[in-house]
Amino acid sequence: MNGLNLTLRALHHGEKHLAGQLTAVAERHRTEHEIHHVATDLAVWSRDHVAHLAETADARGVHLGGSSGASTAGVLSALREKAAEAMAHRPEPGLLLLRDLRELHLGAAENSLHWEMLAQAAQAARDERLLVLVSRCHPQTLRQMRWTNTMIKNLAPQILTSF
Amino acid sequence: MDEAGMSEAGMDGVGRNKSGMGTSVDRIANPWGGRTPYDRHRSWPTRVDTRLGAGVEPDQVQRWVQAASILHSDGDAMDVAVVDGRMVGVRGRADDRVNRGRLGPKDLFGWQANASEDRLTRPLIREGGRLVECDWDTAMDRIVTRSRELTEERGPGSIGFYTSGQLYLEEYYTLAVLARAGIGTSHLDGNTRLCTATAAEALKESFGCDGQPGSYDDFDHADVVALFGHNIAETQPVQWMRLLDRLEGGDPPRLVCVDPRPTKVARRAAVHLAPRAGTNVALLNALLHEIIRTDRIDHDYIAAHTVGFEELASRVRECTPQWAAAVCDVPAASIAEAADVLGDADRLLSTVLQGVYQSHQATAAAVQINNLHLIRGMLGRSGAGVLQMNGQPTAQNTRECGADGDLPGFRNWQNDAHVADLAKVWNVEPESIAHYAPPTHAMQIFRYAEQGSIRMLWISGTNPAVSLPELARVRSILRQERLFVVVQDLFRTETAQLADVVLPAATWGEKTGVSTNADRTVHLSDKAVEPPGEARPDLDVFLDYAARMDFRDKDGGPLITWHDPEAAFEAWKRCSAGRPCDYTGITYDKLRGASGVQWPCNEQAPDGTARLYTDGISWAHPDVCESYGKDLETGASDEPVEYRSLNPDGKAVIRAAAYLPPHETPDVDHPFQLTTGRTLYHFHTRTKTARAPQLNEAAPDVWVEASVSDAAALGLGEGDLVEVGTLRGALRGRLRVTDIRPGLLFVPFHYGYWDTATGHGPSGGAPGRAANETTVTDWDPASKQPLFKTAAASLRLVEHANGSHAPAPTTTASAPCRADAAPPTVGGAAALATETTGTSHHTGGRDIR
Fold first, then answer.
1. Is the ipTM of this structure higher than 0.85?
2. Fewest CB within 10 angstroms: B136, B403, B572, B765, which?
3. Cα–Cα separations (whole angstroms), residue B457 to B126, B135, B185, B464, B534
4. Total domain count for chain B?
């Protein structure tokens, strides 16, 4: 069952990373209001996944550490938000936004593949608890991917043709 | 113009007035007038309301010209009285299906604003920092020159249009063609984004397509009417008259009211729920939970006409009334009681408005109300329906004509066949209609202007410098040197003062056009008088621009081939043919002298259509639907292939949503929730209603509402000057202590600065008077409607009343908790209107469809 634990560990890391990324993007693009608010909501999903993964792993005797991925320290957050406000009237952050959305999408895609592996392994091992976990979390990961994809699709034409 | 037809209709009405026994009523003190009770399943009796200016007698009126109301979405039919080329009054049209002769206070008195001294009568251009008068050629030339420069240098995406919910259908359609196919920009939206975007989105999510399912006639038949965040007494006062008449007749309906304020509706409700702001989804999920748990659902209807029920059932399984009680701060027993009333209803009518649409999780909540009707099979039958309302007279037209963030005729931007079909109607190449992404919504248009990729913004018939959230930001966007702002309006509004070119527009009564109300009723409003000075109809302005820009179709002919309202309407009919909003059976002649007609109206339904979905769901099939749907929590678009596998047969889609906490919640510094809204006597930013003395005096200035317990805790009382602050800004107003939900503050959004010393904003760093100084820039991810109802705010005393009172009405939801706390709102002799009942027909009531 070592492979299963390894996947749990990779996913725990990936969700924690995505939660942090979503929060950082929300702060960096404070003046892109929809990005700011939805990314903040979606970070909650990933943090929730982190907590559930840690719990499940715990029950298997694997300790994955604290359920971090929380908002970064106050000073850095405030700095990112101030920088965003200072740049509100500039077009350049648009390019940065597209890059950030791409990174979020790739992060979520990586997590999605890990959830897929976990689901397959759980079925093979007939691990009911793990299956419940996957069916609870994986759909939200797919929704994170769809969101980043939609935002890129909607914003790219204006950002890339006006710069 | 068919003057003979109009005067004939007029004489008819005058005759009735003379024979009837008219009563005079102060319609400021008594906004809903006298009662004409009627029994369930009978038709609503006629009551003709007339208001003529001082000294004008009915027999002096030379012409009565047909129109429909312009200051709300109800579509009340009326005739405008004309003497010597001047508007002198109004009278409700007895035979119209919507109002049966009644008018609300805004219609009785609002027409006077047309003749205001300060109407714009000449174009203005900015010269040396100041707006100076010029002729039309100079103003239009400046706009055309800038448009050409921008399209050549920066492309069509550098031009945006922000229009209204108060122009006519013909104007929106013309604007949609010139923007989408002429310029080729996808940046065209209306201020309908603030009022009706969620209604449209919720209908698209549930039924695959926009289109109001229900009909106002359902008020006559329902045994339960549920009003969700809908203060109908103040937003559609004429339909409230209808409900009041039913409440006093035989077999009256029971009302369920969800509203945090003590509205007139709340006071007459069988069950009133006043949830914490931003928790509608939690409350609705609990109601759905109870109805499913007690199996008061229509299994056959669900099987035949819907997909997604299992997902909903599982999503709300844990959403017990006890759970929701903690989230919403509403007693669990009240939630269960409301679920009982909704679940036992024989014919349930639900109506929904801004308490849902402008609140957190707007679309998710509005969709749960659709779900309530789908699982109970309460659709498409008399009395059983949903009215996803809107706030403006022609918001529905903005939606259907594609002047909001949709393609004309409810076409699907993701469906290439729909785009090709539209291109055929316009005789252009499909590629010339931007459809690689959804049409840009208003909040994003302003963001693009802020960030510098939109360089020209043409604003018609709306006043974003008062109506958009976070006004300091909006002003900073409009003030930018690099942004060329065109404003087309009646008055020198706050927004006009920040413009580079101001175009004087004609308005209702001065031009001809069609408006469609919230229940799909189409009315014609004819020109009654000449516009002042050089003011022009919005249609003429758009046509002039199109001609100067020389927009061409793919064969080199003119893109826009019409030159007057009726021809524009005929062009729109071709665009609407075969679509859900089919107008092909309607002509100007058909609308003249008769009742309004509900679309779709075509060969199959020559008299129009009372209710949609009488025989299953008709516009949700993957090939015909307007939208494939969105994730209600993230706004992510569903792809065609996903929709096709979810809903191959085109049934209604039951979409579940989980409750998410609001983005801004009270804390130590901002312990209150703040909600904004309207009052009965005003419309939008008061550009018209403040210029009608009776309306202005009923609510002359901004105020703040707080609850009895909060006021007591802070030592505040009626009339104290207070300051409301949020992270965005602050405003000052006098306090009215009411029975509003504790912890919640209310501020009306109507008040801006045009009638203050500074003109367009607060002076210096002083606190403002506009509610939107305080609101947050945040919108529903699915409908993109801004949230005006979930800010966290502080409240502090500035100075005690010393005998002053809040300038708030006592007749409405703003009534003081103690009746003697403020002098009653009255209009006196200047506010008298005549009500005539007891006309020969209708009195006995008759069975109707």
1. yes
2. B765
3. 15, 21, 12, 12, 23
4. 4
